[in-house]
Amino acid sequence: MELKFNEDFKSISTFNAIELTDFSILTGYNGSGKSHLLESLIRRSSQIDTITANEIVLFDYKNFYLENESAIDNQQLYKEKLDAWQKFNNRTKGMLLDYKKQLGAENYKRILEIGQGRPLLKIPKSDFDDNGLYDTYNRYCEQVYTFFRNNTKGYPEMPAIKSLCFTIPCVLDELTEDDFYNYYTPVVLKNDFLPSQIGKLFMDYWNKYQMFLFKQIMKTKTYEEDRLKTEFEKKYGPRPWNLIEEILLRFSSFEYTINNPEKIEIDPSRSQSFSLTLQHKSKGITVPFDSLSSGEKILFSLVLSIYKSVGDKVFPSLLLLDEIDASLHPSQIQNLLDVINQVFVDQNKVKVIIATHSPSTIALAKEENIFVVNKEGENRIEKQSKQEALKILSEGFITLDEGLHIVDQMAKKELTIFTEGNNLDYIKIAIELIAPEILDKIEIVDNLKDRTGKNQLLTLYDLFSRMNHKRNILFILDCDVSTEEKESEHTFYYRIPQNKANTKVTKGIENLFPEDLFEAKFYPPKIKDDGGFQASLDKQRFLEHIKNRNNKDDFVHFIPIINKMKELIN
Fold it and tell me: Where are the alpha helices (DSSP H) in 59-157?
């Protein structure tokens, strides 16, 4: 697929056109404009082939998830449908009729023929041979989109009416009241793609099925459940919970099944409720949605988007996903990439672009799908190797080969330690003097010594907190680092506590040493730009002094660090 520039949008200015793969992974430095580039496709400031904005769906990690659901009952469902029918007649039907008249009867007939029973508002441009007819159709779609966009606030029924409008093969005004009640489902779609309120969808389906059985039995005085079930599913499709369970089988990293309302016997005369919950496969415990991890919520959202798209036989032409992998662990990322590639790209010909800042995603992606977004220049988007992309994400201090070497090191010892600069020299001496018995159980990574500062160390922490590894890793950070990091199962961090008794050196690991060790000879004067002089600590010279002293008493404030190591070893 070809990505080309149309006009400036935020940080995106002129760039050379580039041929992307149908499943492209975009990465780059923070602030390079990855998110702006995806937004520019929605705003038509950039373009992929001939795909229009109405054929594009964009999600980011902030909105690609489900909110918690409250319980739903059958009487509430009926009331919602009644309210929706009244709102449709009073507020929506007249405008849709006007748009249909502007479209013209002959054009409408031709468009229905092109659609061949597919949703009227989801016919791709590629199906039109007549550009003039497509332009007329596109204007009609824009009118409908704009109407719903401007008339949703304050009307809770409107999103579901919009969803119905986008899933039927005709204009909504052609539905009778019975048709409306039969096809209307009080469910909301995020960006017309991701279904929410799934419990309500389940209860609505089960309510329709039970009422269908009741009417057929009253009509025929017989009960043949298999025949009636088949007849019902021809019109309404299979049970949605069965479809979702089938899709869940693709996600080996998702450890839950869903419940369903099949044990509920619907009685219109009384209220009966259903709450959607998850059950852990191995532990057997019921789990509410808000107890899922961020990564699990993302995966379940992908499951539901597949369910909706496959069920409706309607897929976007272009799916844009902006850093939805931010909270995923490597096994989940691999699952995500595999399912997107199989279901969306290969089976249903959806073009997909993922923007990522995750080293794990780059490491697991196919090399031919990796592209880098630069901060400036006409070659704003470039094809890059996996090695170069990883180097960018780790801010230039780690390559794929080095990363594999580190993982290999980790496998040999019970605890691997990362720290910055000269810290590792001091920590080695402290272990030798205070707890030599743990030396053979610890690996201190030293091949990155000259390339690790605070920012690089935090980047590396993020990388390993996402990786699957069985050995413990400890990141030791200076006392002046204020960032709070979330620990994972085998990745830990320890912020060096400040030695307030040392008022000469208040930052860095040198702060742990007694103040009287910092003699004047370690502060050589240096000429300033204005001709004056300043004295600052010569850290390398001080390190050599500490090595030569080799005095256990100098390292008394290192004991908490040693204790943390012992805790992780034991």
Answer: 74-87, 93-103, 105-115, 131-150
- Residue 58 maps to a domain: no
Q: Is 534 helix (H, G, I), strand (E, B) or coil?
A: strand
Q: Structural domain tally of the chain?
A: 3
Same domain for 511 and 493: yes
Give yes or no for a contact between 485 and 493, defined as CB atoms under 8 angstroms apart: yes
274 with 332, same domain: the answer is no
Could you tell me the pTM of the whole model?
0.62
Residue 149 amino acid letter: R
pLDDT in 10s for each residue of the chain, 570 residues: 999 999 999 899 889 999 999 999 999 988 889 999 999 999 999 999 988 887 888 888 776 766 667 778 888 888 888 888 888 888 888 888 999 999 999 999 999 999 988 888 888 888 999 999 999 999 999 888 888 877 766 677 777 788 788 788 888 888 888 888 888 877 666 666 666 678 888 888 888 888 888 888 888 777 788 888 888 888 788 898 998 888 888 887 788 898 899 988 877 777 888 888 888 888 888 887 777 877 788 888 888 888 777 666 667 889 999 988 877 877 788 888 988 998 889 988 899 999 998 887 888 889 999 999 998 888 999 999 887 888 787 665 555 455 545 555 555 678 888 888 778 899 999 999 999 999 988 888 765 554 455 566 777 777 677 666 677 888 988 877 666 666 667 888 888 888 999 998 888 899 999 999 999 898 888 776 666 667 788 889 999 999 999 999 999 999 999 999 999 987
How does 476-494 read in b/e, with b if 16+ C-beta sit within 10 Å? bbbbebeeebeebebbbbb
Q: What is the domain-level CATH number for residue 374?
A: 3.40.50.300
Q: Are residues 386 and 404 in the same domain?
A: no
The pair of structure tokens assigned to 296 is: 């699990």
CA 349 to chain centre: 21
What SS3 class is residue 476? Answer: strand
Question: What is the number of H-type helices and E-type strands within the chain?
Answer: 19, 22
Q: Are residues 411 and 341 in the same domain?
A: no
Q: What does the alpha-carbon distance between residue 213 and residue 205 come to, in Å, rounded to a whole number?
A: 12
Residue span of the structural domain in which 435 resides: 400-569
Query: Do residues 139 and 190 share a domain?
Result: yes
d(CA 123, CA 121): 6
Q: Are residues 261 and 151 in the same domain?
A: yes
Query: Do 276 and 349 share a domain, yes or no?
Result: no
**Which of 375, 393, 411 is at the close of a domain?**
393
d(Cα 243, Cα 100) in Å, to the nearest integer? Answer: 35
Claim to verify: residue 162 and residue 108 sit in the same structural domain: yes
Domain end position, chosen among 345, 376, 393: 393
